[in-house]
Amino acid sequence: MTCSPGEEEEMSWSRTLPTLIWLAAVGFALGALIALS
Amino acid sequence: MTEESLSRRSVLLGAAVTAAAGVTGYVVAAGSAAADAKAATAAANDYGVAETTGDRLAAVGDIPAGGGLILASARVVLTLSADGAVTAFSATCTHQGCTVNAIEDGVIVCPCHLSRFDLRTGAVVSGPASRPLPPVPVQVRDGDVFTG
């Protein structure tokens, strides 16, 4: 089964998104920590 | 399952997202109420009274001669010696920060763990407290006692 280029890109994003969310959460927490310290 | 190596693009994207979120978190936290400076707590200023000057505490006539008057709201114990001198100590027990609430036989008593402090000097008489009650500067003007 082969995927079209559009489907491949969508699958790539769906794999990347959880990591990006984690990175955003960590960054947010670090920023808040620096602001409050 | 195939391994995917990190591309430069994905690393840069992740770093950018982290940085943007960090800036957002900083701005949100800095503008929140949690970042507001709080009044000095009793422990933070070494169990002394928070720094305000010029507040009227009580009339000298309210202080029993040879005894003391506890002002819980101001966290101050006022004492009046036999020769009419007014002195003041912090009412915050140096053990765990409770407010003293009784004066018995020349001794200031803390209700939490029964630390006792000398009424004239603030020195520890007995109890788990090991540090004396710190003195609080007060002024007497026109028969009234003021902080400062």
Structure description:
The complex is a heterodimer of chains A (37) and B (148). Chain A has one helix spanning 5-36. The longest helix of chain A has 32 residues, at 5-36. Chain A has 37 residues and is an all-alpha fold. Chain A contains one helix and no strands. Helices cover 86% and strands 0% of the residues of chain A. The mean pLDDT of chain A is 84. Chain B is α+β, with helices and mostly antiparallel strands and 148 residues long. In chain B, 16% of the residues lie in helices and 26% in strands. Chain B has one helix spanning 8-30; strands at residues 56-59, 68-71, 76-80, 86-90, 102-104, 107-109, 116-118, 124-126, 138-141, 144-147. In chain B, a hairpin with a 2-residue loop joins strand 5 (102-104) and strand 6 (107-109). Chains A and B meet through helix 1 of A and helix 1 of B.
Distance between the termini of chain A: 54 Å
Average pLDDT taken over every residue of chain B:
84
Q: Termini distance of chain B?
A: 75 Å
Q: Specify the biggest β-sheet of chain B.
A: 4 strands, antiparallel
Tell me how many strands of chain A there are: 0
Query: What does the main sheet of chain A amount to?
Result: none
* CA-based gyration radius of chain B: 26 Å
Helix content of chain A: over 70%
**Radius of gyration of chain A (Å):** 16 Å
Oligomerization state? heterodimer
Count of DSSP H/I helices of chain B: 1
Number of strands of chain B: 10
SSE arrangement:
The complex is a heterodimer of chains A (37) and B (148).
Chain A: H1 5-36
Chain B: H1 8-30, E1 56-59, E2 68-71, E3 76-80, E4 86-90, E5 102-104, E6 107-109, E7 116-118, E8 124-126, E9 138-141, E10 144-147
Features:
heterodimer; A: 37 residues; mainly alpha; B: 148 residues; alpha+beta; 26% strand
Short description:
The complex is a heterodimer of chains A (37) and B (148). Chain A has 37 residues and is an all-alpha fold.
